[in-house]
Amino acid sequence: MEDKKLKQLEAKVKDYKQFGFILLSLSIFLFIGLVIPTEHTVITAPSLIVSGIFIVLALAVVFHRLAMNTQKQIYEDSKHS
């Protein structure tokens, strides 16, 4: 039972880290698209894109915190066993 719970927590940590990395990559991609000037494209709502970047970055931080809290829980569970 304990080994199954440990494997589930490790899988959650892996997933949280992957989600955080994907969201961080997405925010970088959006920022680069906002910064690089283009000849034919005019951005009509840059404030909307900037707020989207901050939202995605905030979600990346949330997933990183979830991963660290779950990793801490794994450490404490293995310490008590």
Describe the biggest sheet? none
What share of residues are in beta strands? under 5%
Q: Percent of residues in helical segments?
A: over 70%
Distance from first to last alpha carbon = 13 Å
- As a whole number of angstroms, the C-alpha radius of gyration is 18 Å
The number of helical segments is 2
What is the residue-averaged pLDDT? 89
Low-confidence stretches: none
The coarse silhouette is rod-shaped
Structural class based on helices, strands and sheet pairing: mainly alpha
State the order of secondary-structure elements, H for helix, E for strand: HH
- Strands, total number: 0
Describe the structure.
The chain is mainly α and 81 residues long. The protein is built from two helices and no strands. Helix 1 packs antiparallel against helix 2. The radius of gyration is 18 Å and the shape is rod-shaped. The model has no long low-confidence stretch (mean pLDDT 89).
